[in-house]
Inverse folding.
């Protein structure tokens, strides 16, 4: 049961502008001593000598291009950028600088300068330009000629993964070109913090702007499927910026296109649907989906079940703020999907009735049930789920995990309880900046259930990781956040 990530900024693919602390990520993904972070960027060390033509190319591209790669730092996110003119024009992603105004730029030599956001892309183009103040004679990266990129050629990414490793080089190939969406797919490692940085050819020319990855679970790292906006999109955008036609504020784009969701009612009759070539397509994996919406109340416990004899059902539930609440593949047994969750707020919820596999067509049945109202719940989030074979695993110990998110406020105290009669539960919570706030294995000597109590340090979106203590852990669980 692999997990799809639906991030609305880039239509179903994880945008990578918000960088997390690498120490937090390593601790978060394992909580075990064996999770080591190793330095691998050997070109920074004296005495590193290229031994063959491929290494010589790597070193040449890095030495040529890296002086023009910068870190873009805002109050909410941390990404990368490319200097494309000597007077300090920097190309990056719109989602990195979406708040507009002024941002901080860290040059490759560590110098910090101030820049102004001067333009954003239109019609969902995730590009932005910022202009560094009072600079000239800066190093630059040239833009490759249109149509010059071929599948199979080498690709080089430089950026600041996780906001901590400025000037990191990764190498891969161009894996695929998506002409329809103007994206270049690459297996060069791209991670949170690389967003807005350059994807280069072996001549050190810009062939794309790194923008997103397809991963497993929210906040996940690179699994070899990254995307860059093709440099073919850049000249027209820069012309619009120079001529003053580019928007001065970030443009929001619905991941669902112009299609409106079908309104449904909780506790209504079962719905019959069918995924076909006329259905919407989830860009993350080219799977079909139908869109539904319903009105929910804070504290209301609901169960959504999608069954089919013709497809492998997959459910994704979004809250009133269009952020993901839950998703499920096989929670209802066999290949059927089920989400059981207590709603965190009043408002309109969006449901994607999806298939696990790309371009899978077939009929399905959908039921949405709400429990009878009882005493008001003080729970922020209540969810039932399962860790099953085939789900996402932590690389450190191969243990299974799931992720949930909730909106918290500064100074708020929350208690997180993870209970299971099937496996040794392990839970962790991360703050809006990606840093680990707490983790727990056993609530006491007499139980293997996990419990955490923390005071939230800031207002924003928090992640809770549901995990098994070791690789053998499988089964059902109950998660409650109060």
């Amino acid at each position: 049961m692999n997990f799809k990530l639906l991030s609305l900024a880039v239509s179903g693919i994880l945008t990578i502008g918000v960088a997390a602390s690498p120490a937090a990520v390593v601790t978060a993904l394992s909580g075990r001593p064996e999770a080591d972070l190793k330095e691998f960027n050997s070109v920074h060390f004296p005495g590193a000598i290229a031994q063959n033509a491929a290494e010589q190319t790597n070193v040449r591209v890095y030495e040529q291009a890296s002086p023009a790669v910068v870190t873009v730092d805002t109050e909410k996110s941390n990404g990368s950028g490319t200097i494309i003119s000597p007077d300090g024009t920097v190309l990056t992603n719109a989602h990195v600088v979406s708040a507009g105004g002024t941002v901080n730029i860290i040059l490759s030599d560590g110098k910090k300068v101030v820049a102004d956001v001067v333009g954003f892309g239109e019609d969902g183009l995730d590009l932005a330009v910022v202009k560094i103040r009072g600079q000239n004679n800066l190093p630059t990266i040239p833009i490759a000629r249109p149509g010059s990129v071929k599948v199979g050629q080498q690709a080089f990414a430089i950026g600041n993964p996780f906001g901590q490793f400025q000037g990191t080089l990764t190498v891969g190939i161009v894996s695929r070109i998506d002409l329809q969406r103007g994206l270049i797919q690459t297996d060069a490692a791209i991670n949170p913090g690389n967003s807005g940085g350059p994807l280069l050819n072996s001549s050190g020319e810009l062939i794309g702007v790194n923008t997103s990855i397809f991963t497993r679970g929210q906040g996940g790292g690179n699994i070899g499927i990254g995307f860059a906006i093709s440099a073919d999109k850049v000249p027209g955008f820069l012309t619009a910026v120079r001529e003053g036609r580019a928007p001065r504020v970030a443009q929001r784009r619905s991941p669902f296109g112009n299609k409106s969701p079908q309104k449904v009612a909780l506790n209504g009759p079962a719905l019959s649907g069918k995924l076909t070539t006329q259905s919407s397509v989830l860009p993350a994996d080219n799977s079909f989906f139908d869109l539904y919406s319903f009105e929910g109340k804070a504290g209301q416990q609901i169960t959504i079940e999608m069954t089919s004899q013709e497809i492998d059902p997959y459910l994704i539930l979004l809250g009133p703020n269009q952020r993901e609440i839950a998703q499920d593949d096989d929670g209802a047994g066999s290949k059927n999907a089920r989400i059981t969750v207590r709603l965190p707020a009043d408002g309109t919820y969006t449901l994607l009735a999806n298939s696990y596999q790309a371009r899978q067509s077939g009929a399905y049945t959908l039921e949405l049930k709400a429990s009878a109202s009882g005493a008001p719940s003080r729970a922020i989030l209540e969810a039932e789920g399962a860790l099953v074979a085939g789900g996402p695993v932590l690389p450190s110990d191969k243990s299974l995990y799931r992720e949930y998110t909730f909106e918290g406020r500064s100074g708020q105290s929350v208690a997180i309880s993870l209970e299971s009669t099937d496996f040794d539960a392990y839970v962790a919570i991360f703050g809006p900046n990606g840093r680990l706030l707490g983790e727990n294995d056993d609530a006491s000597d007499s139980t293997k259930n996990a419990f955490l109590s923390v005071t939230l340090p800031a207002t924003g979106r928090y992640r809770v990781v549901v995990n098994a203590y070791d690789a053998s852990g499988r089964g059902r669980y109950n998660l409650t956040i109060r």
Confidence is low (pLDDT under 50) at residues 1-47, 216-220. The two ends are 28 Å apart (CA to CA). DSSP finds three helices and 31 strands in the chain. Residues 53-65 form the longest helix (13 residues).
